[in-house]
């Protein structure tokens, strides 16, 4: 009986260590899964929804997000109203997780802090991204809904976009 009492704390410690290792591995795998989903899904053509365009007094807004290059993605923004292109701007997007726990969170909505900056390769430098929208925004992306929203800290929405291939095709 005395032998059992001395073994139990060792078994308890071993079980706790194994549980911690299992939880850690689950978090790392989930982070990798979330990162891969984000990296694959964000790239492509995004179109502003009709309601957002109406509230913004534009006819259309499109954002193309390119592949990851070092720590940023090249992107292109186009807004037009009537027959006139109001904005045609190449820029860069850097995004990082909203908080440390976001990397491990299992959720339909991914939140990232975004920094937008002018692309040095942009031929038309008389229009700056800061003239169009704040350079620091929060991005919420739902792969399930095919939606991406850019908003400021005061929750002003600067873009409400849908992935082009996720929109119904009109004939």
The CATH topology assignment is Lipocalin
Q: Based on Cα principal axes, name the global outline.
A: elongated
Kindly report the average pLDDT value.
80
> Whole-number radius of gyration?
22 Å
Secondary-structure element pattern, one letter each = HEHEEEEHEEE
CATH architecture: Beta Barrel
Counted beta strands: 8
* Oligomeric status: single chain
Structural class: alpha+beta
How many structural domains does the protein architecture include?
Answer: 1
Compact summary:
With 171 residues, this protein is an alpha+beta fold.
Describe the structure.
By secondary structure, this protein is an alpha+beta fold. The protein has a single domain (40-166), classed as Lipocalin, CATH 2.40.128. It has helices at 2-42, 50-55, 129-132; strands at 44-48, 60-69, 72-81, 84-97, 109-118, 136-142, 147-151, 157-163. An 8-stranded antiparallel beta barrel has the order 1-2-3-4-5-6-7-8. The longest helix has 41 residues, at 2-42. The protein is elongated and about 80 Å long. The termini are far apart. The model is unreliable at 167-171 (pLDDT under 50).
Name a few traits of the molecule.
single chain; 171 residues; Lipocalin; eight-stranded antiparallel barrel; 3 helices; 30% helix; 40% strand; disordered C terminus
